[in-house]
Design a protein that fits this description.
heterodimer, A: alpha+beta, 2 domains, three-stranded antiparallel sheet, 6 strands, 56% helix, B: Arc Repressor Mutant, subunit A, 4 helices, 58% helix, elongated
């Protein structure tokens, strides 16, 4: 089964993949918003999504490390990796302390900032082209790019908010 | 070494778990046992901690079994032991200070 969805927030995406697993659909592949699912036992897997440190870093090292601790790398999309663990093998949370959770959100913010700059540059190129030519198709693209840029900006804000919440927990623990 | 302490709980326990050569899964298990299941490290937390400690030379790669990809073993270095010793000293000082305060209050 293939489903099309656009997620900007990986936490929401994780929840959805878990819901799909509970309905008996195991996530297998991701491509440009298209999610491929295979039948599975309802609730068989728990999913987590992680962001690799860099583009071409030691993917093999990462995958073999995860394999060693009972976690399967299902698919990779750019720097994003989809991971799963059988529910019978216990709870699955990639980041378990406040420090590493904050590190992850910081990494995501830095990654999204690059994406945002690229989108905004494209937006202005399209905007100029639309104004100069009055072409409707270009205009549609401009609006689309604007919407994507805004969505990315919103997730950056959300990540910043999450870091703030985590820092409050950290402070109250001390 | 300046901003290495206080250690996070994860770093503290990982350093304890690699006194003898240990691999990822073993580290998670050992820490869970030491803390009666209170601290169960997530794979991402452990992976990040191991890489940062390898860079800082607190731990080193002890052995790599090419046959089974699972067996990459890590072990504490002398720098790591030094850091750990300093942290234990700091923690002891905290506990000692608290005890002294308790005793003073009891006497009143």
């Amino acid at each position: 089964m293939i489903k099309f969805k656009l997620y900007y927030d990986k936490d929401d995406e994780e929840v959805w993949l878990r819901e799909m697993s509970l309905k008996g659909w195991a996530f297998k592949k991701f491509f440009m918003g298209f999610y491929t699912f295979e039948p599975c036992e309802p609730g068989e897997y728990n999913y987590q999504i992680d962001l690799l440190d860099n583009w071409n870093g030691n993917k093999f090292d990462y995958a073999s490390f995860m394999d060693g601790v009972g976690v399967e790398v299902v698919d990779q999309w750019w720097r994003w990796v989809y991971l799963r663990k059988k529910a019978v093998d216990g709870p699955f949370e990639m980041y378990t302390d406040v420090e590493s959770k904050i590190d992850l959100y910081r990494k995501i913010i830095n990654f999204l900032k690059i994406a945002l700059v690229i989108e905004v540059i494209c937006f202005f190129i399209e905007l100029t082209a639309t104004i100069q030519t009055g072409n409707l198709v270009l205009g549609i693209f401009t609006v689309l790019l604007g919407a994507i840029s805004f969505a990315i900006l919103k997730v950056i804000w959300k990540c910043k908010w999450k870091i703030k919440q985590l820092q409050n927990i950290e402070r109250s623990n001390q | 070494m300046d901003n290495s302490t206080p250690l996070t709980e994860a770093l503290f326990y990982i350093l304890l778990a690699v006194r003898t050569p240990n691999h990822g899964y073993g580290i998670i298990q050992d820490i869970s046992e030491m803390t009666d299941g209170r601290v169960v490290l997530g794979p991402g937390t452990l992976y990040g901690a191991i890489n940062s400690m390898l860079t800082k030379d607190w731990i080193r790669l002890y052995s790599e079994d090419k046959e089974s990809r699972k067996k990459k073993e890590y072990m504490i270095t002398s720098t790591g032991r030094e850091i750990f010793k300093n942290e234990v000293k700091r923690l002891n000082e905290l506990v000692e200070s608290a005890k002294k305060m308790d005793e003073q209050e009891m006497r009143k």
